Amino acid sequence: MWSEFHKATFDDRLIALDEKLRVVLRKHLKISFPHSTLEQDFVPIENQPIDSPDKLAEPAPELLRYHRQEIFQG
User: Fold this and answer.
1) Distance from chain centroid for Cα 37
2) Residue 37 sits in which domain range?
3) Lower CB count within 10 Å: N or C terminus of the chain?
4) pTM of the model
5) How many domains in the chain?
């Protein structure tokens, strides 16, 4: 599930990952993006966990927390 699109939206602060590796949408998405884009690209992934093939591939919890609190600011 974690595609180049998802990586880009993470880097652009449109999505974040919670402590259980579920996708969190930035609040302004629902007012900034056209409804069709939300329905197609963002709603299906909201609250869904990312696929992690093994423990070595999981991001560090402290980095995800930093991203949510300092960069994403949902």
Assistant:
1) 15
2) 4-72
3) N
4) 0.77
5) 1
